[in-house]
Amino acid sequence: MTSVTDVCSDCCAERLCVGPQHPDPGAVETPPPDSSAQHFCHYTPKCFAPSARSTPSHYGEDGWHEATSKTTIRVENEVEAHREANNYKFGFRKWKGNVTERPIEDRSDIVKELYSNLSVVKSQEVSVVTFGNVIYVFLFGWWTSLIYLLICPVMFLTILGAPYGKVCWKLALYFLWPFGKSIEKPGSLHRFPVKPLDSDASPQDGDGEDLVRDKDSAPLLVSSPIPVEIPVPELPVRKTTKRWCRVSTYIWLLLGYPVLAVVHSLACVLSWLLVFTIPIAKLNARVLTTVLLMAPEDIHINRLTKTLGYERRVILCCYRAFNVYYYKYTIQGINIFALNLLPLVFMTLIIGYTDRKHNYFSAETTFATAIISIIPLSYYIGMGIASISAQSNFAVGAVVNATFGSITEMTFYITALLQGHRAATKCYEEIVKAALTGTLLGCILFIPGICMIIGGIKHSEQRFNSRSAGVSSALLFISIGGVFAPTLFSKTFGNLVCESCSNVPGNASVPFVCKDCHYDTLVMNSKNLFSRPLVYTISVLLPAAYLIGLIFTLKTHSHIYDIHISDGHGGHAHGHHVVHWSRWRALAVLIVATVLMACCADLSTENIEPILAHSSISQYFIGVTVLAMVPELPEIVNGIQFALQNNISLSLEVGSCIAVQVCMIQIPLLILFNAFYDVGFVLVFSDIHLWASIFSVILVNYIFMDGKCDYFQGTALVVVYLILLALYFFAPSPRSC
């Protein structure tokens, strides 16, 4: 008898591409992958692997690394297979979220509850006395109930509106504690059989790790769900109320409803922005759009006191005001946090470009909102890149990643250099160099460190592909050597220039005392040429090394990242899928987000001047923290999510990929930009940037040597990162600032 593991081992050994499928006419079609994708994406729906990692059974001790580099990933459809395969391609942006719509019936009960419309009375008794419900009373319940109590006597005074006055009294008591109560219309009972709860449902379902059940291995002696039918006496058919023909309805719409519409809209917006209180937003929206427009005699509020053998639908029923899992709530594939921050982007643009003289908002406020606005725009750019890459062949995906992969950072750097050129100051150049170094340090130390800590808390020890990490480490060494070569050249052959030197008059034996000494960056050699040819040479060699790394990992040695992508539904291929964003929509989002990113970067650099001039904090610290790491927050979140799934390899690749792109793509592009439009950018860094970067690369390569990590190693990386931040915090400001 052949085991599942053996079948999967044989299946994984075959190099298969994504096979053609027959999508639904209404679904978005996806072109077949490029032939180069064969090295990464083996989508075999008939193969099911029980574990996320293949076992080194027949590889032996010498072939351990080769065996552990093979990874089995479960996906729902062909597009998700491409997205997962792109995550393992060097130079491609890593993306955790799904780019296709997942059927709600395939998700766990926890995730299903996130998307419920608060209209189901549960069959089992649920405790409603929770900490979140008590907080609701203090945040929303008391003042919502108070408004109803104030409107109640007003409606009674109109005499004709007395029925609505009674409704206001009942709703005042309801909103003070709405949990465990139902609002329903008499004669509208809808019930349906109860399904047994899935005890194996995972709360991580929303991210794509549903537990898969193999039908062939299912136990035989398991009772099937039995529909429960409870005889309910037939209720008399009620006649349709003619509430729109009553005077009381219009009194209510004139005196009561407008005030309550404002109250419920405010409560809905506030609870929606808090994310974890979205059930309160749904409750207020349902009351505003449905309950308050019903006839008063049709509004019945009942307390759920006993457990029924079936679930039934009502107009409104809420059990929880707070749900911690709403951080994974999405709308059209867009995360709720990115969606809630989108209005801030437009508010920032309106405030920034209409209040240039800062009559209403200070420059510091505009700078803060502009920096925060970069976070959701970076998320939209990342999702657009992932969507296009997952629906296109390898060539298109590579072009999109190369074009838009660094657009967030490049937009800020170029606008800052232009601002410094217009202001005729070198301070902005130093800020850009600090931001470049800060991104490098954060991606080398902080992102891997925080992922190791969070992943190590959940998993005692995590293993990663040491060969792929070795490629990234080698490229990091090349990058650091190339980027800081002009700095070493300047310090070796440059002239030491001091601003002021003093000596005791008449005493030649006393040495001179010099202050503010530095090396001249524009050094002349024997051929009377500036050091710029060295910079141009490096700006050509670094992208060439990056291209060689792409060829090495994607073509000649693609087995380093070799993965096996298996169908996650027990061997049945699902060709029917609908992507959240089509290719044209994703391209439009990329273009719009890039334009908005340029505007926010312009506002941030324009309003940072008061902070640089009057802040007591070193400009170095501002550059390596706020300007460097805020745009990378979506990448940090992706890395943490990978680590929680015990996929620390991708977590490490997130930071390494960004660090390599900073040195091998972004800095050469800045040099190229400066060659065509001279903004005074010179590739010579200060000593603190030089030694901090070299030390960080050596440390991270030492930790990556053994191919395994835990929370202690992550703590070491984070502590070193914090030490370097303290060094920048207490460092004096650059001379040009």
TrEMBL record:
Coiled coil: none annotated. Residues 366-485, 586-728 form the Sodium/calcium exchanger membrane region domain. Pfam families: Na_Ca_ex, YccF. The chain crosses the membrane at residues 134-160, 250-276, 334-354, 360-382, 394-414, 434-457, 469-489, 534-554, 650-673, 679-704, 711-731. It is found in: Endomembrane system. Keywords: Antiport, Calcium, Calcium transport, Ion transport, Membrane, Phosphoprotein, Transmembrane, Transmembrane helix, Transport. GO terms for biological process: intracellular calcium ion homeostasis; neural crest cell development. It is a multi-pass membrane protein. It comes from the Eukaryota. Residues 131-181 form the Inner membrane component domain. GO terms for molecular function: calcium:proton antiporter activity. One of its GO terms (cellular component) is vacuolar membrane. InterPro entries: CaH_exchang, NaCa_Exmemb, NCX_ion-bd_dom_sf, YccF. The keyword tRNA processing does not apply. PANTHER family: VACUOLAR CALCIUM ION TRANSPORTER, VNX1 PROTEIN. This is Low affinity vacuolar monovalent cation/H(+) antiporter-like. It comes from Stegastes partitus (bicolor damselfish).
